[in-house]
Amino acid sequence: MKYIKQFAVILAITFIGEICKYYIPLPIPSGIYGLVFLFLGLNFHIIKLTQVENAADFLIQIMPLMFIPAAVGLLESKSALIALLAPVIAAIIICTPVIMAISGVVTQKLIKKENKIHE
Prior knowledge:
- The protein is mainly alpha-helical.
- 82% of the residues lie in helices and 0% in strands.
- Helix 1 packs across helix 2 and helix 1 packs across helix 3 (53-61).
């Protein structure tokens, strides 16, 4: 019964996200609205962690299974994806080192700032 109540809370928040997607004309997926509402609810203690914790743990455990339909969809549309292969590979080759460099610089600055605070 505990799991059903927790799933009901998560589904209610997801439904609120669906309603927001319908009424707010922004290109934001309804799942993002739901995640933001869940985050805000947990952050401001509107929703207690115990109200969703077990169901959320279960959903995280089965998350890899949720990617199977998406992967199958990609395999079915591989002819359309082959045309995009070169630009995607180029973007990966260019963006990966840039992101790594920026992340390293930001991390080093944050570590130095934290060390100054502790001194």
